[in-house]
């Protein structure tokens, strides 16, 4: 957990140059330690960073960050080309934490499901399709879920949840 305490603020700050100022809305990123240590760090869509550590609190204004398909991999699998991450939540809980990633894609729900189903299965995930959603376990036995919905114009909004 100490590693998360040290790395989380650094990760938030390191991501600051990711968007080049090209997006009206950035990516929301939050990192929380939920094992009683009181740690949290949050990077808002507007570039405002809030860090709350035992004995240290800060509010910092930074440029907006927009994460896209090339900025995220899950066992070596990127998001579908053209996808943009709208929200990322990372939580720690004595080794049982998790990650939740919300993203938009320029392709429909079936294409998103098929993208992940084949690629993650070859990375050792055990997955089952349920309509346009996927559920199962990662290669190391953590719970995995992909939910996706069409939003019109051949586009979709999806959520990946791993663990926690």
How does the SSE layout of this entry go?
Elements: H1 2-14, E1 28-33, E2 40-43, E3 48-53, E4 56-61, E5 73-74, E6 77-78, E7 84-92, E8 98-105, H2 109-121, E9 126-130, E10 133-137, E11 143-152, E12 155-163
Parallel strand pairs: 1-7
Antiparallel strand pairs: 1-2, 2-3, 3-4, 5-6, 7-8, 8-12, 9-10, 10-11, 11-12
Organism: Sphingomonas floccifaciens
Protein name: Lipoprotein
Signal peptide: 1-20
Characterise the protein shown here:
- The chain is of the alpha+beta class.
- It has 2 domains: 65 residues, no CATH class; 98 residues, 2-Layer Sandwich (TATA-Binding Protein).
- The protein has 2 helices and 12 strands.
- The longest helix is centred in the N-terminal third of the chain and has 13 residues.
- 26% of the residues are buried.
- The N terminus is likely disordered.
- It comes from Sphingomonas floccifaciens.
- This is Lipoprotein.
- Keywords: Signal.
Task: List descriptors.
2 domains; signal; alpha+beta; two-stranded antiparallel sheet; 16% helix; 164 residues; TATA-Binding Protein
How would you briefly describe this protein structure?
16% of the residues lie in helices and 44% in strands.
Q: Which descriptor suits the 3D outline?
A: globular
> What is the residue-mean pLDDT, rounded to a whole number?
79
The termini sit apart by 15 Å
Determine the fraction of residues in helical runs and give it as a percent range.
10-25%
Give the number of DSSP strands.
12
Overall radius of gyration = 16 Å
Please list the strands of the largest sheet in the order they lie side by side: 4-3-2-1-7-8-12-11-10-9
CATH topology (level 3) name of the largest domain: TATA-Binding Protein
Level-1 CATH class name of the largest domain: Alpha Beta
Poorly predicted regions: 1-23
The succession of helices and strands, N to C, reads HEEEEEEEEHEEEE
Please tell me the total number of domains.
2
Percent of sequence in beta strands = 35-45%
Helix/strand-derived category reads alpha+beta
Name given to the CATH architecture of the largest domain: 2-Layer Sandwich
Biggest sheet overview: 10 strands, mixed
Helical stretch tally: 2
Keywords: Signal
Organism: Sphingomonas floccifaciens
Signal peptide: 1-20
Protein name: Lipoprotein
């Amino acid at each position: 957990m100490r590693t998360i305490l040290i790395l989380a603020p650094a990760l938030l700050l390191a991501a600051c140059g990711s968007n080049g100022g090209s997006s009206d809305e950035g990516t929301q990123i939050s990192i929380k330690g939920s094992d009683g240590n009181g740690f949290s760090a949050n990077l808002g869509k507007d570039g405002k960073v809030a860090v709350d550590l035992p004995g240290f609190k800060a509010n910092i204004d930074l440029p907006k960050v927009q994460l896209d398909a090339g900025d995220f991999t899950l066992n070596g699998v990127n998001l579908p080309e053209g996808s943009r991450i709208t929200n990322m939540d990372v939580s720690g809980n004595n080794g049982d934490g998790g990650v939740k990633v919300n993203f938009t894609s320029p392709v429909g729900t079936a294409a998103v499901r098929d993208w992940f189903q084949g690629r993650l299965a070859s990375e050792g995930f055990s997955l089952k399709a349920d309509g346009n959603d996927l559920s199962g376990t990662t290669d190391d036995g953590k719970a995995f879920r992909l939910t996706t919905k069409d939003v019109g114009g051949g586009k979709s909004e999806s959520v990946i949840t791993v663990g926690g």
